[in-house]
Design brief:
disordered N terminus, mainly beta, seven-stranded mixed beta sheet
Length: 921
């Protein structure tokens, strides 16, 4: 068997690992800058079959006491006579014909048995098969440190001394007889592909790793004498302390995590519950690390299955269920979508079995922020008969860890969305660890915390929490590490953040260890994730930071998204009888239909419609989302601010309300539109602010109100477009503030009033002559009525229009219909809609609506001057089928400065509309 001809000294070769990172973590050394594909694996292919050489080490402590006194599955040894190979105390999960950890051989899919083999085989759909053989070494402590009694030693000391013991005994001898280099060298480079070392009773002093801790590295070059007398060298290596328990049942045991590093990357790829937020050079994406699930998971993992993000990066797909070229598919339909794809529906079958998943790219982020996505996966935990349940589930321990409920599991992906490129900066970017964040159906909240002394898993003082205030945008769910803030704290430290071990309800305590996920996390049954749900269909805050001891410091601030962007994204889900889910995704669900509490720096780019009796409370977040205490808010979060950007529209329907409390503010930017309907209100409490900028539009109709309480601030800039019915629409209580704007006087308010005539037309003809009216409502000419406008000027606020119903008639004689302001952009009114009946001809004329413009009549500054049909939706220019056929007669008319002059919908009958001496420009 070939061996390497040129070798560095062993003392150099075994020290190539990067930064040491402990507790369910690891690192791979790779300083080269190369172009890579994520699906090729970091330094081992995820599309291969490997046999691991496994070294299980039991240290016989003859110089001090054994730190692991348990004898659960791997008995300890105290007698130094038992030093040797494969002679005593074999772990229970290896002592059989078919080991419970790694299978010795692979026959077919049904033969897969061992927990590690099965987990990666199921995750990869059979693309990755892990087999193994085992060597058990009992070695005296004094054999490792013979010169200094009870001196400390490291991982490489243990490995070197154990291999020395094996080599001196005649070479490799395994439990199942795989002793040739050919058994372990899948790529024919002469090296052992993967050497996995598991120690029963190491500590940080004795081996650099205590229970549950590990490290991995590459190009290790430990020498092993093979059965044929040749010396082989190891390539990739992991070393971990696994304790004396049954690791075949510990599905997030450190050995899985360390191996996964060789597929996914170094410390900077920690995710899925595998990140410990410590100074390992990885940096993390959020304030406090996240729990989750996936094969990169570790100490904070929930489900033991993989996730769709991991399968996507590895290009693992099941060809029986996915015949496309895409690696994100639902029911064989490409399901990696964005807003540009429009409304779409998917069927989600069991994720672990089929790979079905949906990834939704969120439409907005901060200027330099990384892309964000929402993943949806249907885990049929209760029926799929796969490795897909909550970690530490044990039916022998009542009321501890449940099995886990079936349903849709959701999470954010932040960044790391490029699979091919420069490995050091694109595929494996630094300082972006923990980029996956669970979206829990349990919702987000500001929480109250305390100490709890007992838990069914683990020991010592544990944290509990209970809901305080709903906070869908900035609050935490109990899968996250959560900040517990002391009133005297100036800057937060890493030690101010805790995992939640108990969730307290008003009527009972549920010991479900929620930071490892629980049965409240999946979305089940029928429901919707949208603008007003908790959690909501918005992006998440990021806070890139790196740890230095107990301190942490923000890094890469340009990569952050520190704004919540409201959009019309809505995800509705419906469970089918077989536990499949239908998922419908739309992008125009702007409805708020309940009371919600919103916190954060919030931007509205599209629309928001508060339906009857809905309430939005803008409040101060009490959940920390920054390191420093803010001097204005007094907490570790900025005051809440809602900015309505140009083109956005807010509508408060009857009896709905927006209330600003605790230093919150609303800013209406130029080009935004804010409408308060009858009996609805915008209330600005003390310490809060409403700012209406120039060319922003605020309309208050009927008995709607803007109320500014004493101590509240209203700032209306010159050029703001304010339309009200009466002075009673604006209530300024004594002690209100103006901020940097001019005071609002009763005369100012009177000037905001628009003279609008009664719109209750009777049958017959109504004549307006020499009138000047302003409209904040639609002008509707009903069926059977004629409105004759002569020598008049009518102004329309944005979002209003004229509607002529079938058998209604409008005569525009030497009169003008225009918008109310010509100095501001984005204030066009909607224009005139002439409704018809597309199934009837134009005789008699009573079948259709009619518009007659004559003697210099003009329609100006409208989105569509004349639409001969009905709009399909309020904010679009698409005709509704069935409403064509209206009659337009223009003689010496003007259509001026309209985006579209005239638009006729398709009509199958003869159209007798005429245009004589009509100017369109």
């Amino acid at each position: 068997m070939n061996t390497r001809k040129t070798k560095r000294p062993l003392t150099v070769r075994i020290l190539v690992a990067l930064i040491i990172f402990s507790f369910f973590s690891g690192e791979i050394s790779s300083a080269q800058t190369v172009i890579k594909n994520s699906w090729d694996g970091y330094d081992m292919s995820p599309h291969a079959q490997y046999r691991f050489l496994n070294l299980f080490v039991n240290i016989i402590y003859d110089q001090c006491d054994d730190p692991d006194t348990l004898n659960i599955c791997w008995p300890k040894i105290t007698d130094t006579l038992y030093e040797g190979i494969n002679n005593q105390a074999i772990p229970c999960y290896l002592n059989s014909v078919h080991p419970d950890l790694l299978d010795v051989e692979f026959t077919n899919t049904s033969s897969v048995h061992g927990s590690m083999t099965k987990r990666y085989y199921e995750s990869s759909f059979g693309h990755l098969t892990l087999l193994g053989d085992y060597v058990l070494v009992n070695i005296r402590q004094s054999s490792i440190t013979p010169l200094v009694v009870a001196d400390s030693f490291g991982a490489t000391d243990i490995i070197s001394k154990c291999l020395e013991l094996i080599n001196n005994a005649g070479g490799l001898s395994t439990l199942f007889g795989h002793e040739s280099i050919d058994d372990y060298d899948s790529d024919n480079d002469g090296d052992i592909d993967y050497f996995q070392v598991c120690v029963r009773n190491g500590t940080e002093k004795f081996g650099n790793r205590g229970p549950g801790q590990g490290v991995s590295w590459g190009n290790s070059d430990f020498p092993i004498l093979m059965s044929n007398g040749d010396t082989a060298f190891t390539d990739q290596v992991s070393y971990q302390c696994v304790g004396s328990k049954d690791i075949s049942k510990e599905y997030t045991c450190v050995i899985y995590h360390e191996f996964s590093h060789h597929l996914f990357g170094g410390n900077n790829v920690h995710a899925s519950g595998g990140c410990m937020w410590r100074g390992d050079g990885g940096g993390i994406s959020f304030l406090g690390n996240q729990g989750g699930y996936g094969i990169m998971g570790g100490g904070n993992s929930g489900l033991i299955s993989c996730n769709g993000y991991e399968r996507w990066r590895m290009h693992w797909k099941n060809d029986a269920y996915n015949t496309t070229n895409s690696y994100i598919v639902a029911n064989n339909q490409q399901s990696d979508i964005s807003k540009e794809d429009g409304a779409i529906a998917f069927l989600l079958r069991d994720f672990v079995t089929t790979g079905d998943a949906v990834r939704i790219k969120l439409p907005y982020k901060d200027a330099g922020g990384l892309n964000q996505y929402i993943w949806l996966e249907n885990h049929k935990t209760e029926t799929n008969e796969k490795l897909d349940f909550l970690i530490y589930y044990d039916d022998s321990i009542p009321n501890c860890r449940p099995f886990g409920k079936s349903g849709i599991y959701a999470y954010y992906q932040v960044g790391k969305d490029i699979l091919t490129g420069d490995s050091s900066t694109v595929v494996y970017p630094s300082f972006q660890a923990d980029n996956l964040k669970i979206i829990s159906a349990d919702g987000n909240a500001d929480r109250i915390y305390g100490d709890f002394q007992t838990s069914c898993i683990g020991s010592g003082e544990k944290k509990f929490s209970k809901d305080s205030l709903s906070n869908p945008f900035l609050g935490v769910n109990d899968v996250m590490k959560q900040g517990v803030v002391n009133v005297n704290t100036g800057d937060l430290k890493r030690s101010d953040f805790y995992l939640v071990w108990k969730r307290i309800y008003p009527d009972h305590a549920n010991d479900s260890i929620p930071h490892l996920m629980d049965e409240r996390d999946p979305f089940r049954g029928t429901g919707k994730i949208n603008l007003c749900s908790n959690p909501a269909s918005v992006n998440t805050y990021t806070y890139y930071n790196e740890v230095n001891g107990d301190d942490f410091n923000p890094i890469n601030p340009t990569l952050n998204t520190r704004t919540i962007y409201l959009s019309g994204l809505s995800i509705s889900y419906t469970r089918q009888s077989n536990d499949d889910y239908i998922v419908n995704i739309v992008w125009d669900d702007y409805e708020v239909n309940k009371e919600v509490r919103w916190c954060g720096n919030i931007i509205l780019k599209e629309n928001m419609n508060l339906v009857e009796s809905a309430n939005v409370i803008l409040d101060q977040s009490l959940t920390p989302n920054q390191k420093n205490r803010d001097l204005n808010s007094g907490v570790f979060s900025l005051p809440t601010k809602l900015t309505c950007e140009s083109g956005s529209k807010v509508n408060l329907s009857n009896e709905s309300q927006i209330r600003l409390i605790n230093k919150s503010s609303i800013v209406l930017e130029a080009g935004s539109f804010f409408e308060i309907q009858d009996e609805s209100a915008l209330i600005v409490n003390a310490g809060c602010t409403l700012e209406v900028k120039s060319c922003a539009t605020l309309i208050i109709k009927s008995n709607g109100q803007l109320i500014v309480e004493s101590g509240g601030t209203i700032c209306i800039q010159p050029g703001a477009l304010i339309y009200i019915n009466s002075s009673q629409n604006i209530l300024l209580n004594s002690g209100y503030q103006n901020g940097s704007c001019s005071p609002i006087t009763p005369l100012t308010i009177e000037n905001y009033c628009k003279i609008q005539p009664s719109l209750n037309f009777q049958q017959g003809t109504t004549t307006w002559q020499n009138k000047s009216y302003g409209f904040i409502d639609d002008l509707i000419v009903p069926s059977g009525s004629v409105l004759d406008i002569l020598n008049s000027h009518l102004e329309f606020s944005p979002n209003t229009k004229v509607i002529i119903q079938p058998n209604g008639k409008l005569i525009l004689n030497n009169s003008t219909l225009s918008n109310s302001d010509t100095t501001c952009f984005n204030t066009l009114w909607k224009g005139v809609e002439v409704w018809g009946n597309s199934t009837s001809g134009q005789y008699p004329t009573t079948n259709q609506g009619s518009l007659h413009i004559l003697d210099g009549g003009s329609i100006e500054n409208a989105q569509i001057g004349i639409l001969v049909s009905k709009r399909d939706c309020n904010d679009c220019n698409i005709p509704t089928p069935g409403f064509s056929g209206g009659i337009v007669m223009c003689d010496s008319a003007f259509l001026v400065n309209n985006k579209i002059g005239v638009l006729f919908a398709p009509y199958s009958f003869v159209n007798h509309s005429t245009f004589n001496s009509t100017l369109v420009n």
